[in-house]
Design goal:
The protein is of the alpha+beta class and about 250 residues long. It is about 40% helix and about 10% strand. A 3-stranded antiparallel sheet has the order 1-2-3, covered by helices on one side.
Length: about 250
Amino acid sequence: MPFKCVRRPKSPYWVIRGTVRGIRIEESTRVSDRRRAEEIRAKREAELIAQSVYGRRAVATFAEAALSYLKQGGSRRFIEPIIRHFGTTPLAAIDQDALDRAAIKLYPHVAASTRNRQFYTPASAVLHHAAQRGWCYRPLIQRPEAGKDRIRWITIDEADKLIASSALHLRPLVIFLLYTGARVGEALWLDWRDVDLDRAHATFPKTKNGDARGVPLHPRVTASLKRLGHRDGGNIPSARWESLCAAEGR
């Protein structure tokens, strides 16, 4: 039975119902206008016919791949504008040129490193996810070369000035971050049971890459932490770094 538009009782929307090449569907068009509903029906019918003849690769879209990627736990960071840009564009139509044009359109005045991080990395993750499911061929994506700018590290004098200018209740956190190289999240969610002040060592069991790591503590860090109260169990942020009045300098 070919696809046709019908209406269900008590629903303002037209529904696509029928069977084409052994594929049966009953889907809402989410529109109440008959002409628009017929356009959606024709497009949906063409998609399913192409899929039945040429396979999933002929009709899979970027939006479908992105939704599947997110449902499987993929990172949401920076993905939304890419989905809005490509939308229902077939994966088969997204080549290197399409990616480069999209990257420049979405991020026209940024460094190559930013464009890599905020566009090419999430777009590549979605396309590789789709390729693993046979929805497209595995992409070979060329990224823009980031400039090799010299990294300027903070000096000891600058670090001392930063510590001295910090509020007293935040000073232990600033000292900890500077001397351990920990990420802010690692420091804020560090449990006291993972800090051994006698041995001058801290362990970060949960890191960005998922692997635990340990760091030695500088004497300035251990001295600062020893002045904090509430070190009996629990995690450091549960006592809230910023509310500890026993911080260094009190």
